[in-house]
Amino acid sequence: MSCKYESSFASQWCPGCGNFGTLESLKTALCNLKIEARDFVIAAGIGQAAKLGFSLECNLLAGLHGRALPLALGLKMANHKLKVLAISGDGCFYAEGGNHLLHNARRNLNVTMLASDNRVFGLTKGQAAPTAAADFVTKIHPEGAGAQPLEPTLIALSAGATFVAKAFTGNPDELTSIIEAAIEHQGFALVDILSPCISFNKTNTFAWFKKRITKINGNHDRSNLAAALSLAQFNPEEQIPTGIYYQVEKPIYGARKRALNGDPIALRTQNYQPERVKPLFANYR
Amino acid sequence: MPNSCNIVIAGAAGQGVESAVALAGKSLLKAGFQIFITADYQSRVRGGHNFMRIRFSDQPLAAAVVKIDYLLALNEESLERHLPNLTTAGMAFAMADTCANIADPRLQPIPSTIGPSAAKSETFSGIKLLARLFITLGLSPEILKKTVDKQFAKKLSPQLLQTNIDTISEITNFFTDQAVQPLPFAPVPDPQRMLVNGNDAIALGMVAAGIGVYTAYPMTPSTSVMNVLAGCGPEMGIAVEQVEDEIAALNAALGASYGGARAATGSSGAGICLMAEAIGLAGIGEIPIVIFNAQRSSPATGMATRTEQADLLFVAHVSHGDFPRLIIAPSGHSESFYLTTEAFNLADYWQIPVFILSDQALASSECSINEFDLEQVTIDRGEIAAEPQNPGMLQRYEVTESGVSPRAFPQLSKWLISCDSHEHNEIGQVSDDIANRNRQHDKRMRKLQNLAKTLPGPKIIGAPADKLLICWGSTVGPVLEAREKLKTQGQNFAVAIFEYLYPLNRELIEKTLAPFKEIHTIEGNYSGQLGKLLQMETTIRITSHIGKTDGRLFTVEDVEKNLIELVGGKP
Is B235 in the A-facing interface, judged by CB distances under 8 Å? Predict the structure, then answer.
């Protein structure tokens, strides 16, 4: 198979942007897993991180700000055999689309959510993301963002995600291996990818993250929710743990639905005929 | 004008009005009558006042009437409210303990001592009143018993089921000497005849059209479409999901459509408001989608269980920017089925969002209809791209004469497909190049122009006449019946039934409406929205508008009164 996924698209990211690291790691992960381009779809939101899909030659559904996960849900309903990657940034997934994170984690939708987390809005030039610290100063927040930062891993764990991990673009090998594990995971997989914004976040810089990133201790029990929740309650001023916090097997979205077993609906649709409705008429007599 | 009999069953929420009506409806269907049932209910689980009208005839019906022939009252308030509408020859039935304070010669109390001892509670009032009504109508109690058995066999314990059957027997025996008031029409049985509400017809249309995915958030009065699809989904290969909000509902449906399923979502006006941005995504992304809107009283929460036709201009414009869309408004129950199948074909063919605009009055009213003719239904998925030799990016937004670019489905095709919410180039990459923007924008708008030319104009009933009445949706039935009634009184109106509301086939509509001297709109809204749309898009000028904003459906009498006023008479 070709292992290139090369696109003709000219990237719109700043030189040195963390998103380049995510792109490379994703390409490597897809190659390592031998996933053909036709077998996966990227469901994207809006923002700098969400543009990643244009840089791959692949199936891409580039939707609205905040709505990558609902697109992913629909894709998995139409064709549960597709690999679906939901790719966007912290503003898209955690601000505008926060509700969808909660509910698709609850569904254990079989999707890989790659969230670029740089604690700042890049595309709109430097506003506080939901992951920004309370004292993060922006043009809109000269006195600090005020609200407590949201910890995505904690939210995902409590909402029912079955794979929760944090990675750092500064550690590409670990990032690649986590993305691979997330893609292979059957169920809702969140990878919160710490990806410094070199243009609009002068506080949480590459060096700032580098100083705090700590790989999870080898003794951590990934199948233990309490341990994962404990790990997710770190103090970012001291250290930020990277690695797989949690991974368990639970029934995925669709396990209960007869329509979502066997051949995908998209394929079966080709055989749907108007006559299929006829048996229902008896209910109305 | 059909000969008909109008029954009203009334009571508080929770007293069993709906169950009694379901039994009456199915029994009258079995007995071979044509039926039209409308519900007037409040958005509450207990208390208040609910009533339903069951009108039946030997002719097809499509409207409710106010005048009552038989009133079945489950409490005193129901008598007070509805006796004024009871005809002089009419009869009212009520349990004796609920009507001690009311003196009316038409009232026939049922002593509470009659019936099995296990059937003393208020729960059995409905079945007692129905059994009493059947005696007067001269209809066999066996039909009622069979319906009870069919409707309740799965819901009630065998003991309770028997108590209901015994109740019918005892009431029948007690009143067996009562005079029968023969109906002025005979039943016309047809074993294939069905009793459906507007939402049933739409859900069945979706199944016939080959729907694979339906995603929605519950909202009155649209929810029963989701119930029907969820009920048959496991068997039929339809995935249904109750999502977290209407934003998710449309985005998920769009994901499913891109993924290769026929997909739809549904809601009422307020839910469609939340879908606004994703409607634009369907427009620019050229993702076929069907959006069902069961309009209700507006704005915001409005009156949840009440009807209105005030969303037309909203759905004609919802979401920012110019992009093609289609609005179809079925004018009745059969039409709701056939036009739903057509909605999917047109969505796929033109790769656009298609709205099915219904309203609470149509969604919740039940109508007897001929079995849907599946010979009339075809499934047309539109243009699909030929498979390539080697995998590569599909020219998903290839610029074509018609504006339509062949599509393909991920994984099912070797093509790789990029679908984009930004302005994009032909292979779906984000682009803000001037020439590209103009090409892509023109291509999308060509679809609207080309689509408009293929759409039918209004159906005209009763020409020639000087005065034309324009109507759509649930308003059509009562307007047609009132028209016939007034014709017998020497007043001649023609009626234009619009089902394709946007885009408008301008030349055809102007030609069709040219012969009329006066054009009046009659719509369940304040501003005459179809009239406004016609005046925006064509040279048609509207003489006057008959509106209604009280949340209640147009009855035949409502329309009649309005039309008599229109010609300067006194109703």
Answer: yes
